[in-house]
Structure formats: C-alpha cells, structure tokens
Amino acid sequence: MAVTFIGVRHHSPACARLVRDAIARLRPAYVLVEGPADVNGRLDELLLGHTPPIAIYSFYRDAERVHASWSPFCDYSPEWAALHAGRAAGAELRFIDLPAWHPAFAERGNRYADAERRYAAATERLCREFAVDNTDVLWDHLFEIDAGDLPARLDAYFDLVRGEAEPGPEDSARESYMAAWVRAARADAGDRPVVVVTGGFHKPALEALARTGGTGWPEVPAPEEGATGGSFLVPYSFRRLDAFTGYQSGMPSPEYYQRLWEDGPDGAAAALTETVVTRLRERRQVVSTADLIAARTLTEGLTRLRGHRSPARTDLLDGLVSALVGEDLDQRLPWTARGPLAPGAHPAVAEMVAALSGNRVGRLHPDTPAPPLVHDTAAELERLGLAAGGRITLKLTAARGLERSRALHRLRVLGVPGARRESGPATGADPVLEEVWQLNPSDPDGARLAALIEAGAYGPTLGDAAAAALDERTTAAGGDIERLAESLFDAALCGCAGQSGRIAASIAAGIAGASDLGALGRALDVVLGLWRHDHVLGTARSPLFGTVIEECTERILWLAEGIRGGPAPADRARLRALAAARDALLHAAGTLRVDRDAALGVAGRVAAAPDAPPDLRGAAFGLGRALGDTADPARAVRGAAGPRVFGDWLAGLFALARQEVLDPGGTVLAVLDELVGALTDEDFLVALPALRQAFEFFPPRERETIAERLLARRGLRGSARGLLRAPRDPLVIAEARALEERVDRALEAAGLTGGRP
User: Fold this and answer.
1) Is 727 exposed, middle or buried (0-12, 13-18, 19+ CB in 10 A)?
2) Phi and psi dihedrals of 545, rounded to 5?
3) Phi first, then psi: what are they for 279, rounded to 5°?
4) Taking CA 658 as the corner, what is the angle to CA 654 and CA 661, rounded to the nearest 5 degrees?
5) What is the model's pTM?
6) Where are the beta strands (DSSP E) in 622-717?
7) Sequence-distant contacts of 220-224: CB under 8 A, at least 24 apart
8) Element (H, E) at 421
9) Burial of 328 by CB count in 10 Å (0-12 exposed, 13-18 middle, 19+ buried)?
10) What is the mean pLDDT of residues 329-349?
C-alpha cells in the first residue's frame, strides 16, 4: 500500500492541522513520527493525557561524552498531533529517529531544531522575492495565514530548500535509519496505508531511500557497555520553547501560535491585542482607547497591504508598535530577526514580545513515571524537615544542621530551584559556621519538577546525583583552576568530597594542564586549609583534597622553575602561590606525597638563576630557608642590593620567610639597615616603591617590632608606632627631596646660585 510522506515545520499549527486531517482521512495502519526510537516502548506514557507543553528529556553519559537533549511538544506540534490522531484512528504508532544520545545529535540540544542554517541560501532568496525580513515571516506568509493548497506548497518549498542544501553525515545517518522503519512498516501494513511525519528537510531523501532496501524492522541502538542513558517526560514551558528566549529551533511567540491553533488568525490577533494593552496598563503605561483603535486600524491596513486575508503575527506586532510607540527606536524590532530580545528594548516592545511569548507551563499526568531522584528528594526533604517553606538557620557544627545543609547544597549544585542560600561560608578558609536559607517549596511554573526530573539523569539519590554533576563540572573545567576550586568547595559543601574517584581524576588532569600560577596558589591555599583543619565539613585528611594538594604543589614548583625575565615589579599572585606550596611542604610532608628534597633543589636553582625575575629569586631563597636550607641570608641580601631589584627581591623573601627579618639573633635586619642607609638619594628614590611594597608583607604589629629594633640599633629613644605614622607619604617626601637636588644642580650649573652658601 502507498506511503504518505508529510514534511512539516516543527511547531507549525498549519502543519499540525494537515497531519491531523490526513490521518483521520486515511486511517493508516502505521503512523511513523520523527522522534527517539528508544521511547517506543513508552508511548502509552507519552499519551497519558498531559497538558502541553511537555518534552522528552534524554540523557547520555560515558567516559568521554555527556549529552542532554529535549524533544518538546505543544498542542500545535505536528508530531503531537500525529500521535494523538494516530491513536484515535487505531494506528500503530512508532518513533523512527535515532536516540538522542546518538552521535548524530552530538551538537544538538533540541531534536526539533529546524535545519534552516543548512538551506539559508534558498530561504534568503525567497525572503527577497517576497520582501519579508526572515524565515519566520516567510513561513507565516506562505503557510500559516492563507496556505491555499497546503500540501503542494509544502512539497514545493521543501523540494527547493533540500535541493539546494548539502546534507551532512548526521542527516544521512538519521535518514537511512528512518527509511528502514518506513520500509518495514509498508511491508507489514498489507493493503492499509502508512503515514510518515518528519521534518520537511528530510522528506525528499526519505521518499527516495524508502523505495529500495530491506524490509525488516530495524534494531533500536542501545548505549555501549559502561555508558548510561535514558529518557523521561518533563513539563516544559512556552518560555523555554520561544525563539525570543534563545530556543534553538521552532517558531517564535508560542502564545500567538497557540491562539492561532485554537482560534484562527483573526481570533489570535484580537485576543493578543487585548493582552498587550492589558499588560502595558498593568505596568502604568498609558494606552488610551484611541491608541487601541489606532492599533487595530493599522494592523488591518498592514494585513491588506501585505496581501493577507487575516492578520499575520508581524502584521499584528507592526500595527501595535506603530500605534503605541511614539518615539524613534534605538534598536531594530526583534521580530525582524531570530534570537533573544536585546537588553534595553523599549518597554512597549518588550511587553509585546512577552505577550506573544506567553507564560503557559505544561503539566504531566499524575500517573507519569518519574526517575527515582524525584521520590528520593521528596523523602529526604521530608525526613530533614525541609519540605515546608520559610527562612531557616543551620548550625554547621551540629550533625543535623550539617546534614540539612548538605541536602540543600546538593539541590543547588543540581540546579533545582526552591532553596536559596542567603549567607554562609564562601570559601574553604571562611570561618563562618552558620548558614541561612530561604525555602520556597511551591512550584507554580513546574520548574522545580522539571529540574528534578532532568537531574535524575545523574543518579537515583541526591548524594549520587550531586557527585555525578560535580564529576561533569570538573571534567568540563579542564585546566581552569578557578572553576576546579569552585567545584571542589561545592563537593565539600555537598559532602561528596570522598564519594567520587572521577572528581579526583578530573582535578588532577586539570591541574596537570594549568598554567596560571596565581590560580593554582589560591586553590592550594584553600584546599590545604580544608585538608588540615575542616572537621566541620568532613574534609580534614580527605584523600580527594590530599590529591589536589600533591598535584598543585608539584605543578607550582614546576611552573616557577620555568619563569624567566628581567627586573619587574613583584608579582604578588605568584608569590602567594609559592607561599601556599611552602605551607603544603611544611604541613603535609610525611602524610602526602610532597617531596621536600625536590622542592629544596628547585628553590636553590631558582634563587641562583641570574635570568629569573628578582621577586622569584627572593621567594626561592625564602622557600629554601623555610624548608631548612642553611645558606647565609645576610650574604644573599647583599647580593641583591641593586636599587632596581632590591625591593622586589625582598618582596619575594618576605612573602616566604619574613621571620628572617624578625629573628632577634639574625643579621638580616642589620644588613638591610646598612644597605638602605648607604643608598644615595637618587638610588633611594628608585628603590623606595618596591621597598614599601615588600614591607607590606609584614602585618602592623611586626612592622612596629622592626621599627623598635631599628631605633635600638641607633641608640635612639622614641615611639616606634609614631615612626610608622609619617606625616606625609614617604614617596612624596623622597620625590620632593630629589626634585630639590636636581633644581640645585641646575642652578649651580647655570651659575645662578648667587650668594647661597
């Protein structure tokens, strides 16, 4: 029996009506629909009686790839109409496309993304021919408002665009698979017809491929061994569906097309004009009766001018903006292009877009199966007393408080709305031991349920799912140490620090490829504190955090030894990184795999390298001293006494070993006093900025101690604290003295000193 191929545009009311009517007329044996074939065993679940928009959420995860995909349906989706009309006609229903996890969908987050980019040349030529702005306007003009012989028009349109497009290997794989389903259904249908509903781009190829080949039912691909994948139904929303909010495909303004589906073009225009005006008035924007009459008049005029029997979407929008916006607009109207609404749009334009987008949210039938995570979360929140709303304070030092905190952080990491943390520890070094959360368990827009269902792809329980999500985040972070550190701290907050070996492996790989010394130092500083002290979050002596300490320390020393450069201001970020490595070597040696002997070797080589930056050489010398090197510090200070490098070398030393100056029995302070005192005024002016920066590594109390010892060295009595409070900026004073000296020399050279002594 004949096969009827119906090529459609996804989310088109005109195509949905065509599909519905064709199936009702033909009463086929099979209705084959572009959709994930691995869901065929659950089509009864899809047809339970949900309130669209809903979507099939599909996920896949293996050691190399993570992928998520949505197949959304609304009332006017041709695929949705085909399924319901086919069930009503007694047909066998089948999805015939590859599963969403298949590599053919590797770059696609939405199955029903139209292929317009692949046939842009043809549609651009048609847009010029019909004098319209874009493909959306072209589609309305040709098909939605006054289609005439719709099947013939669709065939001509898709034959044109497919004939001028070059299908990629992904299209070929999908079309070969779908054609196998068509051949099998035709062979099995006997003398009854078969209806095939797919995107119009695929229709010409499927007609050709279905003529020859085998007739056995194709196998449904399964994930490879070791991979996980599956699909669940989720509530969807018009906001997620709308092209103006960034949806990858489909038609913009879903509320408009919903009204078009339900009430036709005249009813849609009248209802949405009223909605726009109501929204504007609610926001205290004046819209008079005269404005409303003008909008309707202009819309009707544009409709006739553009040759439409009834108002199209852009007829309505252009009429509204002409009547309601009196001033010039800085931006082009958003419906003249595809994409999200730009910031700063005129308030009236923003309200028009919002009104036509709509705020409808789908609802799943109560009998819809949900992933185990949904049930586990509900039970866990009930057990922990977190199911009610309100503001709660959690004591992290109490076992129950910590357990409740971890559950809420797991929801946060999974992106589940309904719980917002107002305060709490911001880093691993933060001493805050209390959190405040605001809970809102209501879910009026279905976002919470949808997020939980989608998060179910990560695991059956909150703990498992959060650990898997953190796995994914650390893998995606690559060598971005800031992101890795954030993920690591989240793992501590979620109580997942010891739950996943993949987190440790991902972090180790990221650190191995990191080149930002400062970021490595910040991460190491925080993680070392958590590993050493944090018994509250349960990270003290954590193997995961120990791995990070080992890898960061080794990487910091390796990067530091490779840095070369002449005199330059001290780099505080890399000095902090070396200080963090010093702390790890001092406090984790003997417990973790950190090699003090190897670090001493690096420190000695860098300290002696003439082409290393002065701050790094000073830091390397300080690192060696901190680790037990007995090299003479006074001699090292004298060797770095050039005015252009002195302060920067000292900054490195003080960042790593400022105790060398504070040691009462040491000679470093005496040498410093001698060297600074011997500087000429000009050299002192050169050295002063870096010297001041170097001494900033000492906290106020230690600076006061240094001042006291300097006074004692000179046999002077006075207030050390007062000595630190210069009446004016020392740099300004030094610059003024140098300026006076230059003026005196210039006057003397010109013989203008007169009788000055």
Assistant:
1) exposed
2) -70, -35
3) -65, -40
4) 110
5) 0.74
6) none
7) 220/37, 220/38, 220/40, 220/99, 221/37, 221/38, 221/98, 221/99, 221/102, 222/38, 223/60, 223/62, 223/101, 224/62
8) strand 419-423
9) exposed
10) 79
